[in-house]
Every structure is written in C-alpha cells, then in structure tokens.
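G., before I forget:
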Amino acid sequence: MSHLMRGRNEKNTGITGNGLKWNLMEPPAAGFAVLMKDLLYTGKTKFGKLGSGDLFKFIILRVLQNIAYRIGYGKQGIKIAVPPVCHPDLSIMESNLSPLPEGHRKHWVFEFLSVLNNPDKRIEVPAPKSVIFELSNTCNYNCHGCGIGGNGIKNDRFMKLENLKKWAESLCGFVDIIRINGLGEATLHPDFNECVRALDVYPGAREIITNLSADLEIYRMLLKRNYVMIVSWDACSAELMHKLRKGSDFWPMVKKLKAISKAARDFGSPDPVLLFTLRKENMHELEGTIRLAAECGMRALTVNIFKYNDNRDWTAEIRREIVEVMLACEKTSSKLGVKLSLPSHLGGDPLGLNASCKKARGKCALSATEVVVRYNGDITPCNMMNPYVYGNMEERGFSRSWNDTEAKTFRHFSGTQQAHPFCKDCYYVDVSNRMQADIVKTGGAL
Amino acid sequence: MKIHRWLDFKITNRCNNYDNKCGYCDVPVDSPACAESIDLETIHRTLLDARALGFDTFYMLGGEPSIRKDAHRLIEPISGDPDVNITIITNGKVVNESMYNSLFDTAAARACVQISMDSFEKNNLKRANPDNLLRLAENIKREAVRAYSDRHVCEVEIHCVISRENMNSFDEFIRYFADKQIPVSLAMVCPWKIVDEPVSYNEFTRDEVKKVISAIRNLKSGLDTDNFNRLVADFAEMNLNNVKSCVSRECGAGLTHLVINSDGNVYKCMADSFDKGKSLGNIKEQRLHVVLKTVDSASVCPCKTECFDGFAWDKIAVGI
C-alpha cells in the first residue's frame, strides 16, 4: 500500500469479488498539513541522514510525487485488495514424517525447514531417466505380506487413462525407461491396452511387472512392443505358490510362462525375467524355480528379498543357510544357462557372490534418476514403492515436485544414518532386465 | 503430525513498566513517551512474509503491546487465516479491549491473550496488582468464551515465571486458576543458576530445582498447558544433570522458531535476541525471506538455561 494510503478511511468495507476482499478508498485529503506530515515522516524515517542539498532535492521531488499521485488518483476512488495470505503446503511433508522413527524426525524437520528457508541450499537434479507408472493399486491375488489384494479388486484404484496421457506428456519425453508396475497388477486396468498405446509415442525402453494372470494375448502384445516382462514367481511347487500367492493357479501359469518365452524368442523381444521374492518359506524352492525357469525357456531370474513392514532383518538368524542356498543356485543356474541376479547384500552385510548385483554404497542414485507416479498422481522416489511423497502430479505438477523441498530433503538423507527407514538395507536389484532394457534401447541382443 | 513454526515478534520496545521495571527484566525498554521503533506496515508485511514461510504460531510481545495506539490492528493481515495460532502477551496493567476483541474476532485456530502474572503476593517482582490482574483475566475469559467455537479456540492464559519468589507456591497458583478453567503456562526465570547458597531471585540449590521439577510433574490441571509445563520440567532436569558439563545439542533456532525484535532485527532464538551482534538481518531493510535464507542448517551450541524456548519448540515442532 502506498504511504499516502496510510490511515485513510475505508468505505464500503467488505465488498467481495474474485475471491478477495475489496475496500473502496477515498482519495487522501489534499492540503498543506497532510503534505507537511508526509514530508516530516518520510524525511525522518527514510532520508534523515541526507545532507542539506540532497534533503532539499528530496523535498522538491516528494512534493511533485504527491501532486502526481493525486492527479493519477482520479475522481472515482480506487479499489485496493487486502493481500491474500499465502502459506506453503506442509501437509505432504507432515504425512511423510509420520512413519519416521522419533529420533530421525527432528533431523528431517530441520532439513525440511532449512530448505524452506533457503531453496537454493540443495542443488536441483536433472529430469529422471526412469519413470514407473502405477496403473493399478489393486490386485486379483492376495500375496503373503502384501495386502493390496486383500479386499478384492477396487475399481477406484486404477490410474485414469486421461491422467496417464497427461502425466506421461509432462515427463516421458526425456526418460530412458518407462516401467509399468505398482503395488497392484497393472494388466487388470480396464483400459490397459489404451494405456500401453498411450505410452507408445515416447522413446526409451519398456518394462512391466506382472503376476501373469492376464490373457496370453496381452503378453504377446507387450512382447511385440519389446517390453521386458518381469514375472513375479515365488515357488516351484503348486502348493507353495498357491499359499504365498493366493489366487494364483500354478499349472496354467507354467503353461503361459512357456508360451511367453517362446513368443519372446519368436518376436526377437528381450527375454522375460522371473522375479523371485525370497523369504524363509520359499528359500528352499529357489533352486527348483531356476530349474523350472530353464524348463519353460526362461533365461533370467532375479532374486529379491522379502521385507517386513517394520523392516526387521529376518535374514540375520539364517544368513548362513541363505548363502548356502544361493551358492547352490549359482551353480545350477550356470549349468542351465539361466542368468541369475542375486542381491548385493543381506541385511547390513555384503553378499559378494558372483551373481550379486553391484550396488554403490552411500548415496542412492535412484532418488535423483528414478520416479514413481502412483495411481492417484502421488510422486514417490523409486520402484521399491517407498511411501515417501515428493508431491502430486495434479496439485503441484511434476517439474515443481521433482525439485521441491520434500524431494530435496529426501535426497539429502539418502545414504546417511538418518536415511528413510524404508531405504535401510534396500534390496533394490539392478536386475538383468535393466541391462536388457539398455540393450533394447541400443538395438543389441542378449 | 503437524509441522509448526513459531514467531516471537516484539512489536514494541515501549513499556508502561519503564519507571518501575519487573524485578527480573534486564531488557532496556523505552518509555511510553517514545516513538514506536517499528511501524505497522512493516509488522503487517512481515507477518505475511512469515506466513508465506510456513510460520503458523505468532506471539506478539514487547515491551508492552497494549500501549501501541494501533494495537487493535496488529494482526490484521492474518486475521482471516483459520490455520494460525495467535497470542498477544500483556502485563495487564493497561486494559485494551479493542486489542483483545481484534484477537478474538479473527478466524485463528487459537486466539489467546496471555497475561504475565507470577503470584498473588501484593509485593511481587512483576510490580503488578494481583487483584487487578485477576479481574482482568476473568473479564477477558468472558469475552473468550463468547467468541469461542470448535474451530476458533479463544482463551486467556496466565504465564507464570518461576523464581525464588514463587518457587514454593506456583503449583497452588496454577490450581487456583485451573478451578476457573484458566490455563497457566510456566517458565523458569531466565537465566537461572544452580548455586550452593542462593541469594538472588534466579538462584537455586539443586534440591530446590528438584523440588520445582517434582511440583511441575505432579501438576494435573486438566488443561492444555499441562503438556507444555512438563517440558519446563524436562528442560530443568536436563540442565540439572548437565550443569557442570554443558553439552551441545542440535537445535532448530531459526527453523522451528524465530525472534524479531522491535528494532526490526531478526534473531534465531530468544537467547540470541539480547545480543545485537547475532542479528541475522533487519526487516526494515530486507524482506523476511531474504533474511532467513542465511539460516539453512540446524544450530549447534552449548545448552544453556536460556534455551528453554528453543527446547520446547523443537519438541512441539516435531509433534513430541
């Protein structure tokens, strides 16, 4: 507000329009007394230290300014708006903080507020190289330890096709890999084919994680498009498979597995990969699953490690047994020509086997190179489905969220003692399918 | 959980106790006859800037805020915001109804008039007349009840400083007000010391501090301030245990809490605000977000008894 408005009487207070409260102001009273008061006030508060020559110039200019101001004011009065109060949306960070251990929370709040104070504090990272779309947050299986499919298929938990199109447009033009997966089964999406077609226009390789419950034709369609198919598969016996992956039907799935292996070869598509989530209950079926993979014509199997919600290290008490299983599996896979990818570590200890994937210690590069867009537009860090949210595609948009305070805070703690608990002993596997995807991208072959 | 940021804004340096200052006040204040050192425009602009930085808890203090001629307009820019908590602190020696009403007429989630009062003794460090303050508190309470709604909590609160003067009676004092449904927040006199032979109002023996801690822990007024007061006990205990080996601790000064003095200088915390050399910048010369850019990490400094505000706010900011 201009200094000349100071202390003016408002009339018709409270007129509303355009979401603002407007006040009509009368022109300031003209006259010698008003002018002198202004000169004294302004002179004293802002120009008190000037020499007499400069003070004289100031007085002349100020008188001219007052006159010009009144002429410009006109006869009708002007509208002024009470400035709207704006404040940052802290709700996303507030939700992010809740699952953090109490000891970490303080550090995260301090870092978050530090970045809020000085947004330039942390460098901005370039656009991600890999994007994952969670088409479905619902599942037809109810797998042990997951829970997403516990209440059947929920129709309100699919990403809307128009949203996928809109969101892909804002971030897929510059990525190397687009993956379709999520906590649910992507192929259940009612517009799945349309979704796949919507992504066709973008460059880069493609990946999908599936439970293999869709029609074979869907998988053939994906293979024709050079999708790397990653099939979740946790057992070599029907009994255990049905127990761990409730809702699955083992033998038809084996048949389908053979069919997609063949289709991949026929189309010259990248080899499909089996994704085995190792846990106490199925560790002794890993070797059998490698044999099954070979029988079905599969040439790659990646081992992931089951994680409890509270992130406790269940491997600690049977680590030696697990390593023995893995050593045996290395031999078997080598003999059968199945490329085996094992984790880089178990709990806090490096695994160091021949088939262990390489994982850099310290900062995790994924938080700066990979992004997940959840079915509801939430933007989260990586394909391990960390619940931490950077922002939302609809509310903040991708560009802003990717380098906003929440994202910078997350990256700051990556690889430190205060890292997000979900990242502790992360079993992110740099799977062979990612290598294959690179080959697809460059036109090579495995 | 909610993230909170607290701003202590000393909106005047003038005090009506200028000629007869509170017994424990070492702050050089101005006479009521002096001109204000900060104008209303700067206060308004800074409140909006602070809100834009996520500050949601505003304490307006001084000097004595109620003697500002424009006291009823102090919080105008944030008065329509339903997500803020606003408290005006007063010594209650001047009754400024328009200021109280301007506070209760806001949309704030919590609007509170906080009256400084330590005891019912006639001769007290506050140099206050307890009968007058009690009457004022009850009158404001009536107004607060009138303006109260579920989404707009209006309160009058007593702020009681524990010193040698009242260390044996503050709990009774709290219970008295609790019966009237008036909450009392506590603080130890600042700075306080542990000595073998206490003489001054701010000196205590270890046993006396332990007794104070125990009295606070046993307080159960049933009002919201119980949780806050427990932090006073926690902090006193922490200082009691570390008094000989003063430890450093990471603190959210300038992050979870901030202080602006009446001359416009901005400080990370209340303890810093008495040392002009620690000013981060001045809101008369720069916008608050420019000044705050320099605070981009947590502070680590030795824990002192003056650090209570920071200690409490770090706890509140992270929902503990």
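Chain B has eight helices and 13 strands. The interface with chain A takes residues 1-3, 5, 39, 41, 48, 51-54, 56, 77-78, 80-81, 83, 250, 252, 254-256, 289, 292-298, 314, 317-320 of chain B (CB under 8 Å).

More on Monday.
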